[in-house]
Design goal:
Number of domains: 2
Structural class: alpha+beta
Number of helices: 3
Largest sheet: 5 strands, mixed, barrel
Helix content: 40-55%
């Protein structure tokens, strides 16, 4: 028995589309590529078990060789959300923020929610230091 080349190409394209629609870890893209390569090789192969073996071996090799460098490259290009980018910077209170209370501060031209962890109230237009960040909330103390 022999599977036509266009079956393998169709399977490869469907698997590539599945990778594009899912938040996966870049496994399906290599399985889809293996399907495409197997489809390109089927005119030279006339046995189904050899085609299936080729598909399985190519999938394994593609994942083992190419997945890790791809994920590593994409992680370098993607900014990390938990990087302490604003820690240690000076912000300005937009309004009076009581000790232990929350209010707004201005930093880098944008208004942010902030919690005053200092023992003193933070007066309007007073300078404060960003100690930490919890999502979009800055933890600040008077300067």
């Amino acid at each position: 028995m022999h599977v036509e080349w266009w079956y393998w190409i169709s399977i490869g394209i469907l698997i590539l589309l599945a990778e594009a629609m899912t938040p996966g870890g870049f496994y399906l893209v290599f399985i889809g590529l293996a399907g495409l390569v197997t489809g390109a090789c089927t005119p030279f192969i006339h046995t189904l078990w050899i085609e299936i073996t080729l598909f399985a071996v190519l999938s394994t090799i593609f994942i083992a060789v190419f997945r890790k460098p791809l994920v590593k490259r994409l992680k370098k290009a993607t900014p990390q959300a938990d990087v302490p980018e604003f820690i240690g910077e000076t912000a300005t209170a937009v309004e009076m923020i009581p000790a232990g209370g929350e209010g707004n501060v201005e930093l880098r031209g944008s208004i942010w929610k902030a919690r005053n962890t200092g023992e003193k109230d933070l007066a309007q237009k007073a300078m404060c230091t960003v100690l930490a960040r919890e999502g979009l909330l800055f933890i600040v103390k008077p300067k």
